Amino acid sequence: MAETSGKTACDTCASKGSDACDTCKDKVNLEQQEQKIRIAKNLSAIKYRIAIVSGKGGVGKSTVTAGIALSLAKKGYRVGVLDADISGPNMPHLLNVEGIRMGADVNGLIPIEAVHGIKVVSVESLISSSDSPVIWRGPMRSSIINQFLADVQWGELDFMLIDLPPGTGDEPLSIMQTIPLNGLVIVSTSSNLSVLDVSKIINMAKMLETKILGIVENMAYIECPDCGKRIYPFGEDTVKDLAGKYGIGSLGSIPMDVKNRGTDILTNEEPSLIIKNTNEIAENIVRSIEG
Ligand SMILES: Nc1ncnc2c1ncn2[C@@H]1O[C@H](COP(=O)(O)OP(=O)(O)OP(=O)(O)O)[C@@H](O)[C@H]1O
């Protein structure tokens, strides 16, 4: 919208403040333009934006995101986590800030701070209680993602990790189109069904011309605590074979942690099996994105 001497057309419009103002196309356009400017400004202070994706729900995408965030933050990187899984927000729980509400000031929303200064933004931190279901429909969900990008005071970050909803449906696709990404991390188990869905993610990434940083194989094996023998519940090389087929690098694998109860990846004094393995994965991500 044209601006004259710092004023917008809305400021000089005779309908300003009237009912007609609410439905005015010029006003909506102006708000969208202003939001785009705020998003661009926020994102320009974030060095790398990485989406964590999976073909299926329940394969450990959010757990792996939390582990990578923690591993990167421990290495001294400034990390933010955007929980873009609007209907199943788990990041506050995993990063041990569940139940804390996001504050706000004149400059916008203030992210919750988890251990090692990880900034966490999630709808869970806006709704009244963490067991309330999020029942917003499509347009509202994409508008909340835009607001998280435009109106949150992210500040300077080295990494923004975006925990996407699972699958290749409208929602992950539209979020991937909204946020200019530097790369994708795919999380899968070796089960045939999850691997099948990963091929769809790979094709989606190609379509969007987004770089795939590599695949993380989660729940890859169980190690016997007595003899150390590894048992591969979903087969041994399925993810590796898939990565080879599409020419994608492996970022590492994470065993099944039988002691895992969710938040204890952070609260246990002894680093959990998941964290031990995400340290190497985080290093591989840095190598892959900077390489
Ligand atoms: N390596 C692991 N060892 C043991 N349990 C794990 C491991 N990874 C994830 N889990 C557990 O598996 C369950 C699913 O994990 P998570 O919520 O991270 O999956 P998700 O892919 O993000 O699911 P969705 O996208 O459907 O929300 C959780 O209970 C989590 O604690």
Automatic annotation (TrEMBL):
GO biological process annotation, one example: iron-sulfur cluster assembly
Subunit note: Homodimer.
PANTHER family for this protein: IRON-SULFUR PROTEIN NUBPL (PTHR42961)
Protein's UniProt name: Iron-sulfur cluster carrier protein
Similarity annotation: Belongs to the Mrp/NBP35 ATP-binding proteins family.
CDD domains, sorted: Mrp_NBP35
Listed InterPro entries: Mrp-like_CS, Mrp/NBP35_ATP-bd, NUBPL-like, P-loop_NTPase, YlxH/NBP35
PROSITE patterns in UniProt: MRP
Keywords associated with the record: ATP-binding, Hydrolase, Iron, Iron-sulfur, Metal-binding, Nucleotide-binding
Residues that bind ATP: G55, K56, G57, G58, V59, G60, K61, S62
Entry annotated with the keyword Metal-binding: yes
Pfam families in alphabetical order: ParA
